[in-house]
Design goal:
211 residues; alpha+beta; 2 domains; two-stranded antiparallel sheet; 4 strands; 62% helix; disordered N terminus
Length: 211
């Protein structure tokens, strides 16, 4: 917790104590003819005071990046796809190599979504699949559109568009979507202030802290 935030909480506690003292002083200086409060009126119980204090305390969260897991999965998938493609080009492995290569492509499209879901980030899981399928397909279509009708065999632009779309999808997915919110739990001192009214027109000020 930063020094500024700690100072702000200490200031809030001081203001609460000052407010409590002011209210008590105002009660003591009432007009002589005023009816005195019932001294036997019960104060709020501890459970109510704890609920009030809990309602004033909000957990702190921070953004956590878990894209390293996606980067490892992508690296493994791309490595497998590269090796299998080279084996297939040299005629080794036959049909099994082609099947494994298609499996590697499926892994690149779906494994990151599974990682997102394991972190409870379901929106990112759907976005990951949409990016990894949509952007390469869009790049492929744009590259194919660059081929002229007079070209008998056009392979370069579609492959370049496909690769650019796939790379963009991986970067956006791994670096942008792979984030989650986590509750901050540190050993830094933390102060909490709770204020609860009492039935005798006073108030209870509760101070708590973790060190």
């Amino acid at each position: 917790m930063s020094t500024v935030m700690l100072s702000a909480r200490i200031l809030a506690a001081s203001l609460a104590l000052l407010l409590s003292s002011t209210v008590a002083h105002a009660g003591d200086s009432e007009a002589p003819g005023a009816t005195a409060p019932d001294q036997d009126a019960p104060a709020l119980d501890d459970a109510t005071a704890e609920r009030v204090m809990a309602s004033l305390t909000q957990p702190e969260t921070e953004s956590h990046w878990y894209g390293g897991q996606l980067l490892l999965a992508d690296a493994a998938g791309l490595t497998a796809l590269t090796v299998l493609t080279n084996l297939d080009d040299h005629g080794r492995g036959g049909q099994a190599i082609g099947t494994l290569a298609r499996g590697a492509v499926g892994s690149l499209a779906l494994t990151p979504a599974i990682i997102h879901a394991s972190h409870g980030n379901y929106a990112a899981a759907f976005g990951s699949v949409a990016l990894r399928v949509g952007l390469p397909a869009a790049g492929l279509a744009i590259g194919a559109g660059a081929c002229t009708d007079s070209t008998d065999w056009c392979l370069g632009p579609p492959l370049l568009g496909f690769a650019a779309g796939a790379l963009t999808a991986i970067l956006v997915d791994d670096l942008v979507l792979a984030r989650e919110s986590r509750t901050v739990t540190t050993g830094a001192p933390r102060f909490q202030v709770g204020i609860a009214p009492r039935a005798d027109h006073g108030m209870t000020v509760s101070l708590g802290g973790a060190f």
